[in-house]
């Protein structure tokens, strides 16, 4: 009779709470004892235990979710997209960076492409990614090394800054501003030219 009573007590304890576990300590509940949280770790938000249900199951889920979040953060860099030829073509020079800075940034992206591209392919894709001004002047160096393309690009940039080379982007903006803002001035000049031709 005492045996049956003990087994009944054990069954009741299992149903009521710890289900035969020794304790609710981290050591007994965690599946990954050897993993330590890094310094500066920020605690993610979890559903709090409300007193209903099995606390051990809640703690296990809590520890496993904690480790899963840690794992995802640790390997987040693998989620970043690996660039391809199409993304390299859409990588454009920012207004705030020099041609050299842009070329270095672009080349670093090209180095991450899988499978690796040959030097001639890198140069071809780089030239195709340029705006009209740079594209026009970089075409003659198509079969050259990337470093030579970089030097030529710097020379083109210097030419644009000094005014020796007219940038298509600047020309387009100037033309648009003339058409929008100075329409009446242009009309008067055309009238003067027409009257000069008739008189002259």
Explain what the structure shows.
By secondary structure, the chain is an all-alpha fold. It has 2 domains: 3-81, no CATH class; 85-178. Helices cover 61% and strands 0% of the residues. It contains 10 helices and no strands. The radius of gyration is 35 Å and the shape is elongated. The protein starts with a helix and ends with a helix. The model is unreliable at 184-188 and 191-200 (pLDDT under 50).
Low-confidence stretches: 184-188, 191-200
Q: In DSSP terms, counting alpha (H) and pi (I) runs of 4 or more, how many helices?
A: 10
Structural class: mainly alpha
Coarse shape: elongated
Mind summarizing the main beta sheet?
Answer: none
Question: How confident is the prediction overall: mean pLDDT?
Answer: 77
Q: State Rg.
A: 35 Å
Query: Helical residue percent?
Result: 55-70%
Number of domains: 2
Q: Span from first to last CA? A: 132 Å
């Amino acid at each position: 009779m005492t045996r049956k009573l003990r087994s009944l007590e054990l069954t009741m304890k299992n149903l009521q709470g710890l289900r035969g576990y020794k304790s609710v300590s981290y050591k007994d509940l965690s599946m990954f004892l050897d993993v330590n949280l890094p310094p500066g770790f920020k605690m993610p938000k979890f559903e709090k235990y409300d007193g209903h249900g099995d606390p051990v199951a809640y703690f296990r889920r809590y520890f496993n979710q904690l480790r899963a979040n840690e794992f995802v953060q640790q390997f987040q860099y693998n989620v970043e997209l690996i660039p391809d030829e199409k993304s390299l073509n859409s990588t454009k020079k920012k207004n705030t960076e020099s041609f050299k800075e842009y070329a270095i940034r672009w080349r670093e992206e090209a180095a991450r492409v899988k499978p690796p591209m040959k030097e001639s392919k890198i140069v071809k894709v780089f030239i195709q990614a340029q705006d009209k001004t740079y594209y026009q002047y970089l075409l003659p160096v198509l079969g050259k090394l990337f470093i030579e393309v970089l030097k030529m690009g710097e020379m083109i940039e210097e030419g644009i800054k000094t005014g020796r080379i007219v940038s298509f982007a600047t020309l387009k903006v100037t033309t648009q501003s003339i058409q929008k803002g100075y329409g009446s001035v242009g009309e008067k000049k055309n009238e003067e030219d027409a009257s000069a031709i008739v008189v002259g």
